[in-house]
Amino acid sequence: MRLTAILSMAAKAAFPKDYRYGTSRPWTIAAKRLNPPGKKRRKMFIEPIAYEDWSVFKGDTVEILSGKDKGKQGKVAQVFRHRNWVILDGLNTHFRYIGKTADYRGTYIASEAPLLIRDISLVDPTDRKPTEVEWRFTEEGEKVRVSLRTGRIVPKPVFQRRDGIVPQQWKDGPKDTSPEETLEKTYTPSLKTLEEEVMEKLGIEEPRRNRKTY
Amino acid sequence: MGVLNALRRGIVRGADRMAEFTSKRGSRTHYKGRGAQPTGVLTSSRKFVPIQAMIPQFVVPDLEGFRLKPYVSYRTPVGTEPAVTPEGLFSEAVAQQIQKDFEEGSFDKEQLEKYGFEPTQEGKLFKLYPKNFI
């Protein structure tokens, strides 16, 4: 019993408390090479930002405040909350070779480096300048981001699915139930189980009972 | 490198003695099933006699006019029905009848069977506890 417990602990300890997250997902080979089990690195100090106070989302337009591409605006491609990182499309890039084989030197591509939240600022949609943003409630009760300089609402970017499906423009296939039929309420509450109801409907009578087992 | 050190690094030596011994392990002469229910009886002459009542049969009602399909459209908004709770089921199925009877004056504490109360599960085909159906 102790051995399986230890093995399950070893499997669960894939993300210990001091696991250093990188840009690769933890189950990939690159991440496993950086974080083999048992490796301890210096503690990474990350500014704690509460879940409700997080202001940057994937698809937002932000401006870089410091670094190589200072002053440029870009769209957020990926957000890492555990390290307060943000990766912008095509900005803050360095170059590397990818797909290198024994005889081929590989393709030279630009790969983006992550930026800290502190070096990023959301852009006001009206005057397209960087602003500080605060979470406030509208009169309807909706939580929105408000730019402190101008007071305009910064709308949340539209969430795009990875498979490219836009739900409102979906055309139903032959095996799809339409929304009206799905949301139809046909349940009549009753104290019978499903099996008893089906038996009643089909007129099946079962007078035999199971023998009592002890 | 001691045992504790190896454990701390996440490497444990030796076979897992607590793993389930399934039919995939053991020699090729080792016969073990995976827990299928029998559908008949083995007689003394080692002949297997299937019993029709033990073979499961699907009872499907007539699906005439049934409009639900296997998949749901992406355009469907998230539903807002509350989850079915015992209290909710009681209040929808039984409470109104009890209230009506109480107001008429014909509510009897000793005769709760007419509202669906079952004092024991004995004699029922589908018992709720211990549950004898899946």
Automatic annotation (TrEMBL), chain A:
Presence of the UniProt keyword Cell cycle in the record: no
Segments of skewed composition (Basic and acidic residues): 172-184
Domain KOW as annotated: residue spans: 55-82
Region named Disordered: 167-188
Pfam families: KOW, ribosomal_L24
Localization, UniProt: Mitochondrion
GO MF annotations, alphabetized: RNA binding; structural constituent of ribosome
SMART domains (UniProt xref): KOW
InterPro entries: KOW (IPR005824), Rib_uL2_dom2 (IPR014722), Ribosomal_uL24 (IPR003256), Ribosomal_uL24_C (IPR057264), Ribosomal_uL24_CS (IPR005825), Ribosomal_uL24_KOW (IPR041988), Translation_prot_SH3-like_sf (IPR008991)
Any one cellular-component term (Gene Ontology): ribosome
Primary subcellular site in the record, as a coarse category: mitochondrion
Keyword Lipid metabolism: no
UniProtKB keywords: Mitochondrion, Ribonucleoprotein, Ribosomal protein, Transit peptide
GO biological process, one term: translation
Top-level taxon: Eukaryota
Family as reported in the entry's similarity comment: Belongs to the universal ribosomal protein uL24 family.
PANTHER family named among the record's database cross-references: MITOCHONDRIAL RIBOSOMAL PROTEIN L24
NCBIfam families assigned: rplX_bact (TIGR01079)
Record-given protein name: Large ribosomal subunit protein uL24m
Source organism per UniProt: Oncorhynchus kisutch
Gene: LOC116353406
From TrEMBL, chain B:
Alphabetic keyword roster: Mitochondrion, Ribonucleoprotein, Ribosomal protein, Transit peptide
Keyword ATP-binding tagged: no
InterPro entries noted in UniProt: Ribosomal_mL41
Main location as per UniProt: mitochondrion
A GO biological-process term: translation
GO (cellular component) term, any one: mitochondrial large ribosomal subunit
A GO molecular function held by the record: structural constituent of ribosome
Entries under Pfam families matching the protein: MRP-L27
Location in the cell: Mitochondrion
Keyword Heme: no
Family membership noted in the UniProt record: Belongs to the mitochondrion-specific ribosomal protein mL41 family.
PANTHER family: LARGE RIBOSOMAL SUBUNIT PROTEIN ML41 (PTHR21338:SF0), MITOCHONDRIAL RIBOSOMAL PROTEIN L41 (PTHR21338)
Protein name, entry field: Mitochondrial ribosomal protein L41
Upper lineage: Eukaryota, Metazoa, Chordata, Craniata, Vertebrata
Gene coding for it: MRPL41
